[in-house]
Design brief:
Elements lengths: L1 E6 L3 E8 L2 E9 L6 H14 L9 E6 L5 H12 L4 E2 L20 H14 L3 E6 L2 E7 L5 E8 L1 H10 L20 H28 L4 E6 L2 H5 L12 H13 L3
Parallel strand pairs: 1-4, 4-5, 6-9
Antiparallel strand pairs: 1-2, 2-3, 6-7, 7-8
C-alpha cells in the first residue's frame, strides 16, 4: 500500500493506494505547529477507522508547499510507517519536461497535477486546481509542463471581503438561486460564484487559443465540482487528480 500526502497551505489531502485504487481518502487541516507524533496518531486513527493496517504501507510520497511541516511529516513517516518518504520536486521521474524558467520554483502539487493530467487525459491539457490559490497548470501539445497561471483563491477572497468591510456578512461559496441577488447574501453569493467562473473561463479561453481546440480541461481541488456546473469549459471534475499524480511519480521512481 502506498501512502500519498498532498500538503497545501490550507489542507492536507491523504490517500492510501492499493495498486491504482484509492482505499482511503482524507482531508486534514494543515497545522504548522503539529508534531510528528500528533500527525502519526491522526493517521493511525484514520487507518483504524478505515480498517487499514499501518504495517501494510510499503512507501510514502509527499508533495508539499509548506516547508514548516516537511520535517514533522518525515519524522512521522519513519516513526510510524518505518519508511523514509519521497518528497516530490522537479528532479523526480515525472515523465515530462518542466519548461519553467527555474523548475525548482514549481510547486510539487502542480507537478503532480501535470503528470496525472497527461497520463489520464492526454495533451494538451489544462488543470484548474481550486485550493488556497487557483492554479492553472498547463501541459502543452508535446506533453511538457509549460507553466500556468496563479490567481487568488476563493476562500482567500471571501475572507478578505469579510475582513475589509464593516457590514458585509461571511458567505459560503455555492451556486446562487438566481443571478440578480435581492438581498446582501444573495448578491455576494452571486458575485463570488459567477465572478470566479467568469475569471476561470476567461483564462481558459485565452489558453485554448494558444494551445489549440483539442485542449482538455479538468478541475480538481475543494471547489472544483461547484465550478463544473456553470463553466463553459470545465466539465470534468477529478477529485483524486493530485493523488494519482503522486502515485504515478512513485511508480516511476521505483523503475530501474
Amino acid at each position: 500500500m502506498l501512502l500519498a500526502l498532498d500538503v497545501g497551505n490550507t489542507n492536507i489531502t491523504i490517500g492510501a493506494f492499493a495498486g491504482t485504487q484509492v482505499f482511503g481518502r482524507w482531508r486534514l487541516r494543515t497545522i504548522r505547529e503539529q508534531t510528528a507524533d500528533e500527525w502519526g496518531i491522526l493517521l493511525r486513527n484514520l487507518f483504524t477507522l478505515a480498517g487499514l493496517d499501518l504495517s501494510g504501507v510499503h512507501g510514502v510520497i509527499i508533495s508539499s508547499v509548506v516547508p514548516a511541516v516537511d520535517q514533522p511529516l518525515e519524522a512521522m513517516s519513519v516513526r510510524y510507517f518505518d519508511r523514509k518518504p519521497m518528497f516530490v520536486n522537479a528532479a523526480a521521474k515525472l515523465g515530462l519536461k518542466v519548461l519553467y524558467d527555474n523548475p525548482r520554483d514549481v510547486g510539487a502539487d502542480r507537478l503532480a497535477n501535470a503528470v496525472a493530467a497527461k497520463a489520464k487525459y492526454g495533451s494538451p491539457c489544462i488543470v484548474v486546481d481550486l485550493g488556497t490559490t487557483i492554479n492553472f497548470d498547463i501541459v502543452g501539445p508535446t506533453g511538457d509542463f509549460l507553466g500556468g497561471v496563479i490567481c487568488p483563491g476563493i476562500g482567500m477572497s471571501i475572507s478578505g471581503l469579510f475582513a475589509k468591510t464593516a457590514r458585509l456578512p461571511m458567505v459560503d461559496f455555492r451556486e446562487p438561486e438566481k443571478l440578480i441577488g435581492s438581498n446582501t447574501v444573495g448578491s455576494i453569493t452571486s458575485g463570488l460564484y459567477y465572478g470566479f467562473i467568469g475569471m476561470i473561463d476567461g483564462i481558459i479561453e485565452r489558453a485554448i487559443t494558444e494551445l489549440g481546440p483539442a485542449t482538455k480541461v479538468v478541475a480538481t481541488g475543494g471547489q472544483g465540482e461547484a465550478i463544473t456546473k456553470a463553466s463553459r469549459f470545465v466539465k470534468t471534475y477529478d477529485e483524486d487528480l493530485t493523488l494519482d499524480g503522486l502515485r504515478l511519480i512513485w511508480e516511476r521512481s521505483q523503475q530501474q
